[in-house]
Write a structure and sequence with these properties.
Helices cover 31% and strands 23% of the residues. The chain has 493 residues and is of the alpha+beta class. The protein folds into 3 domains: 107 residues, D-Maltodextrin-Binding Protein, domain 2, CATH 3.40.190.10; 119 residues, Dipeptide-binding Protein, domain 1, CATH 3.90.76.10; 208 residues, Dipeptide-binding Protein, domain 3 (Roll), CATH 3.10.105. The strands form 4 sheets. Strands 1, 8, 9, 10, 11, 12, 13, 14, 15, 16 and 17 form an 11-stranded mixed sheet that branches. A 4-stranded antiparallel sheet has the order 4-5-7-6, with helices on one face.
Length: 493
């Protein structure tokens, strides 16, 4: 290519050629790139680049258009009418229309392999009105539907690719997002390129995007400092002060709807006795966990809704730590000491949280064996019910149903521990049927009274999101859900 041609090409591109690859360090390697099967938070970060949703969530957690430009509830709450954008297109050239949306929603709600079936359980039919309009029919009012459609159940894949690949679609995902997949090397990298026919292509300013899995938070920070990555998807609290002191870096942050919880296997695990679970909770102090492992930066909390929000109940506080009471409860249950295994991902912060719990619980009569696992392997094990207790993160949803029911409803898609309570199920069902704030608050309060007594989960703390950015990364907008939106992001170097 001649020098003149190179100069002309450089003028056409939105920035220097050398600055067109954005490298993002992520905390783990995604397990699967199929929204129907996905269950890990890090997959949602990748999907943000790869797969558009019907509805998005803004930094203020308000719903905003993405593939659907407008929506309207029927007066009886039994149908949602969606209008689609006219300029949607999949990476394989297939036109994104109402029939494509119908095919995806039908797969999510009926396919054997789909993990979205519980989320879309109230959907009874999807009707195509014309290429740009469709109606989602419900068997009962379901207030959380918009929130569901703002996540994986609202990600629309190419029906052409689905027909060709079937359950293997996760190996070659074809969506309609701002970037398309070009290569994946397991445990090493995910490479994408800008999709020029995307409806929002004018606001996508990098030519290539590379996700690099780095489970160790210190390694992520070292790579950021060395210029090997441009963005750290998750900056550990222990690294925050160090990163802030480095004038070469910038830290972005946001109050988070994400939280950490300890799921307990109620069906086959060692902690099936309620007295033992109560003893475990009385042996720990969430504030100590926050101060020691999290530099006091997060929010100690015993509920899935953050303090100060509409569905958090300030009077339902965690019991005071009392190791003597814990030992007494164990003796009443027939145990002098009680041993169980606590699974945790192999991320340093989560491992430290587990070690602090281990040390505190030892004073209360527990002998905890910590088993560290790669994130996707731990999710797979807990899905099979092969665990006593496991510490997991939930990235949070704009609607409370997506923070409570997923773990605690009998049919919750993350109900790994097979918890079942008619009282909880009934309260959650009433909350889903109403859009009235007071009615929903009362229902979630009844549910909280019941599950707090049963302790199928010990909710531990709410997060704050911290991202590390290299100089020259511009247009980054922090969001409470922790997801990176790539629209507007650019590299000026």
């Amino acid at each position: 290519m001649t020098r003149a041609a190179l100069l002309f090409l450089a003028l056409l591109l939105p920035g220097p050629l050398a600055a067109q690859t954005l490298r993002v360090a992520i905390a783990s390697d995604p397990n699967v790139l199929d929204p129907a099967l996905s269950g890990a938070f890090v997959e949602r970060v990748v999907f943000s680049a790869l797969c558009d949703k019907l509805v998005d969530v803004g930094p203020d957690l308000a719903f905003r258009p993405e593939l659907a430009t407008a929506w309207e509830w029927a007066a009886d709450g039994l149908s949602l009418h969606l209008t689609l954008r006219a300029d949607g297109r999949f990476h394989d050239g297939t036109v994104l229309d109402a029939e494509a949306v119908r095919v995806n929603l039908e797969r999510y709600r009926t396919a054997r392999e789909s993990r979205r079936r519980a989320e879309l359980r109230p959907v009874s039919a999807i009707e195509v009105v014309d290429p740009r309009r469709l109606i989602i029919r419900l068997s009962e009012p379901f207030a959380p539907l918009l929130s569901v459609l703002s996540d994986r159940a609202g990600m629309i894949m190419s029906p052409t690719a689905l027909a060709r690949l079937g359950e293997r679609i996760g190996q070659e995902p074809v969506c309609s997002g701002p970037f398309r997949l070009t290569r994946r090397v397991a445990q090493d990298r995910i490479e994408l390129e800008r999709f020029p026919e995307h409806w929002n292509a004018a606001n996508i300013h990098v030519a290539r995007l590379v996700f690099l899995p780095m489970p160790d938070s210190t390694v992520r920070l070292l790579n950021l400092r060395a210029g090997q990555v441009d963005v750290i998807e998750r900056l550990a609290p222990s690294d925050l002060a160090d990163a802030r002191r480095d004038r070469r870096l910038r830290v972005a942050e946001a109050t988070s709807i994400a939280y950490q919880t300890m799921s307990i296997n109620m069906a086959t695990g060692a902690l099936r006795d309620g007295r033992v679970r109560e003893a475990l909770e009385r042996s720990i102090d969430r504030n100590i966990i926050n101060q020691v492992a999290l530099e006091g930066l997060f929010i100690a909390n015993n509920q899935p809704e953050a303090p100060g929000t509409a569905y958090h109940f300030a009077d339902l506080t965690a019991p005071r730590r009392d190791p003597a009471a814990s030992r007494a409860l164990l003796r009443a249950a027939g145990h002098e000491r009680f041993a169980f295994t606590l699974k945790v991902t192999n991320l340093p912060v989560e491992a430290q949280v587990a070690q602090i719990i281990q040390a505190m619980a030892a004073e209360g009569g527990f002998d905890i064996r910590i088993e560290q696992m790669e994130s996707s392997a731990m999710v797979a094990a807990t899905q099979r019910g092969e665990y006593d207790a496991a510490i997991a993160i939930w990235s949070g949803r704009a609607d409370p149903d997506g923070n409570v029911s997923i773990w605690l409803a009998s049919d919750g898609f993350l109900n790994w521990g097979r918890y079942s309570s008619p009282a909880v199920d009934g309260a959650l069902e009433q909350a889903r049927r109403s859009i009235d704030l007071a009615t929903r608050q009362a229902a979630y309060r009844r549910a909280a009274d019941a599950w707090m007594a049963d302790r199928p989960h010990l909710f531990l703390y709410h997060h704050r999101w911290f991202w590390g950015l290299r100089p020259g990364v511009e247009g980054f907008v922090p969001s409470a859900d922790g997801i990176i939106r790539f629209s507007g992001l650019r590299l000026s170097r």
